[in-house]
Every structure is written in C-alpha cells, then in structure tokens.
Amino acid sequence: MSLYKILLFFLLIINLHFQEYEIDSLIENKHYIAAEKAIINSIQQNENDELLIKKLGDCYGYMRDWDKAIIQYEKLVEIDNNNATYNYKLGGTLAAKANDTNKFKSLALINKAKKYLIKSVEIDKKNKPARWALIQIFTELPQFLGGSKSIALQYANELEEMSLIDGLFAKKYIYDFKDDNKMSKIFNTQILEKLESFNAQYDYNYLNYSIGSFCEANKSNLDKGILYLKYYIENFTSRDRSTPDQAFYLLAKIYYYNNDFSNAKAQLDNAISYYNSNQIDNQSVYREMIMLKKNLDK
C-alpha cells in the first residue's frame, strides 16, 4: 500500500470518529434537528451502518416523530432480528405511537408492539426496560383487548429477581392501576422499609420519577425525593411518560413541606412556565399548581 493510500485511510478514520463525536454531542445537547442532518449526511456513505441507523431512530424518537423512528428501527430488525435492543426500540416506539393515535388504530399498534417487546425479553433475559413496557401494556389494556394482570405480575416478578426496587415499584404500579388498595398498601410499606437502600441513579427514567413521586406522596425521605426528581428532569426525553412540569410541581410541594418557600416558588414557576409554553392539557394538575401558588403568595 502506498504512503498516499495509508494517509487517506487514516484521514478517513479520523473523519468518521469526528463525525460520530459531533453527532453524539448534538444529541446529548438535544439539538435533534442538527443531529438528524449530520446523521443523514454520514449515513449516505454507508446505508447499512447499524449504529447510525439506531442514532437516527433515536433522534426521531426524541422529536416524537414516531413514524420516522419506526422506519429506522424496522431497518435494524430486518438487519438483525435477534437483537434484543432493536426489538425493544421498535416495540417501545410502536407503543408510544399508539398513545398518540386514535383508539381504532392504537390496538393494532399495541399488539404489534407486544410482539417485538416479548421477543426482546426472550432474547435478553435481563432486559428491564422491555419488561417495564410490557407491564404497562398488560396492566393498562382492558382484559377483553388483551390485557392481563397475571401476565403483568409475572413480568414484575422477573423484574424483582433482577432488581428489588424495580420489582416493588412495578407491583405497586399494577395494584394502583387496578385500584387494589389492600395490595398497594402492602407494597407501599415494603418500599418505605427499603427506601434507604435505594441510592443509584437509574437508567430507566420512569423509576427516577417513581421514587421522587413516592417520597412526596408519603412525605418521607424528602431529600431523596428532591434528588430523584432532579435526576428525572435532567434526563427527561419526549419518550418519558410524565412531563417535566409534573416533576417541577412535585419538587415545589416537597420544598413547601420543608418550609423552604423560596425554592418552592422557584420550582412552581418552572412547572407553570413549562406547562404553558408546551401547551400541556392537564387541567386538574394545573388547578393544583395555581392553588399552591396562592398559598405561597400569602
């Protein structure tokens, strides 16, 4: 190989690494439109580059462009249909799209989502996010449309074998949704007993929110509640179920319980600002925010 070709090869490698760094930086800083353009430019050089396809799908997911995200994840599953991550991303995005569409279309999307999520957990026995997604689907779907509390609890048991905190919160979530107050109280007590031992920041952001919300609702371990709600806000993406205004509002309530009215006002202002600027429609929560604001303004 000539010196010219060797230099050209190394320049190409350096350029690829620079492009990858640039794309990761754009996504990390939530500049998704710029990231999309950079990925599309890079992907033209290798249309089957799985990493770039995944990043493009992720980028569309962060922008809630579910259709474009689904197209990218379908490409990945076509390339490697035994990849747990690819099946999870496709199943999870189909489920997300189902939440944003009408009831007639959503059932078909949910059934399709279940297929890929189930395959994901069959391939990867330690896949916690896919199990959480299946727990939510089987819990929230009516039984006559394919929901099943027993299947949801089965996945919760599997979660608990991997992670005690995931399992306990998953079971409490199931019983809360089913209005089984007796069983919900049992798991509420178990979580309270174990709460001091839960100290990690969790990759599955829903769990960060669940811990913060739990601390606020029980008025227990309030400093931990503040920490986990801040984790949630910091790591929030459009894929998350609860919008940041709800986390800001919970923070405001915790500071209020602590008689830290300055921070309570600041977080409540964040909550109301986010709610209004993002045109969120949750009137019951908004009314609660306004009531707290009146109390703080006295």
Query: CATH fold name of one domain, please?
Result: Serine Threonine Protein Phosphatase 5, Tetratricopeptide repeat
**What is the averaged pLDDT score?**
89
For the sheet with most strands, the description reads: none
What is the second-level CATH architecture of one domain?
Alpha Horseshoe
CATH superfamily of one domain: Tetratricopeptide repeat domain
Helix and strand run: HHHHHHHHHHHHHHH
- Quickly give the structural class: mainly alpha
Tally of strands: 0
Helix content: over 70%
Low-confidence stretches: 6-18
The gyration radius over C-alpha positions equals: 22 Å
End-to-end distance: 79 Å
Task: Describe the 3D structure.
With 298 residues, this protein is mostly helical. The chain is 78% helix and 0% strand. Helix 13 (244-257) packs antiparallel against helix 14 and helix 14 (261-277) runs antiparallel to helix 15. The chain is globular.
Question: What is the structure about, briefly put?
Answer:
It is built from 15 helices and no strands.
Per-chain topology:
Layout: H1 3-28, H2 32-43, H3 50-62, H4 66-79, H5 84-99, H6 103-123, H7 128-140, H8 149-162, H9 164-177, H10 181-194, H11 205-218, H12 222-235, H13 244-257, H14 261-277, H15 283-297
Helix pairs in contact: 1-2, 2-3, 3-4, 4-5, 5-6, 5-7, 6-7, 7-8, 7-9, 8-9, 9-10, 11-12, 11-13, 12-13, 13-14, 13-15, 14-15
Features:
298 residues; 78% helix; mainly alpha; 15 helices; Serine Threonine Protein Phosphatase 5, Tetratricopeptide repeat; single chain
